[in-house]
Amino acid sequence: MSQLTTNKYFFIVTALAFLLGIPFLAKIAFSSKEIYPSVVMPAAGSKVNIGKDGTCTFEKRQLYGIDPKTGTEIELNHTRFIFPAPIHDLRGMIMNDLGLFTYDKHTDQYTEVTNWWRQKLKEQHCSENVIIARKLKIDSKDFSQTVIDEKIYTLD
Predict the structure, then answer these.
(1) pTM of the model
(2) pLDDT in tens for each of the 156 residues of the chain?
(3) How crowded is residue 94: how many other Cβ atoms within 10 Å of its Cβ?
(4) Dihedral of CA 107/110/116/118: which sign?
């Protein structure tokens, strides 16, 4: 092999080692820090569990309102319900009880939060005082939905 070809491959290997090795070593050394630039993975994804029989299950969070005329549950459109917040923030909102227990009930912030949720329920033609949050487990075999957790929030 000629000296030029050998130098070319040496340069390529050195460049790749530098480009890939430095971030790898930095990630090991500073595991609590985020390396920039980094690959951003999709947010709000859920784990898919695959059973020994080949079926898979996954979890889904769903919000419901109450139809004021019939009293039946209405599945809320998540994107419209939390707008202008991005959809990937919904999981955090549900896990933090929609911000309803963050403030003392006698403060202006609590009133502001409850009024905001009431307005969002009204926009989707629901009763303005109840939000139901459910965590569902869905099985791929028959697409059955099992309720794992349910919370009912009253906006008083």
Answers:
(1) 0.60
(2) 566 567 888 889 898 888 888 877 877 887 666 666 555 555 555 666 777 777 777 778 888 888 888 888 888 888 888 888 887 777 778 787 777 777 676 777 878 888 888 888 888 888 888 888 888 888 877 778 888 888 888 887
(3) 21
(4) negative
- Amino acid, res. 68: P
Six token digits for residue 81: 């319900």
SS (HEC) of the chain: CCHHHHHHHHHHHHHHHHHHHHHHHHHHHCCCCCCCCCCCCCCCCCCEEECCCCCEEEEEEEEEEECCCCCCEEECCHHHHHCCCCHHHHHHHHHCHHHCCCCCCCCHHHHHHHHHHHHHHHHCCCCCCEEEEEEEEEECCCCCEEEEEEEEEECC
Residues 110 and 121: beta-carbon distance below 8 Å: no
Contact between residue 122 and residue 80 where contact means Cβ atoms under 8 Å apart = no
* Two tokens, residue 21: 């090795």
* Short-list 138, 137, 120, CA closest to 129: 120
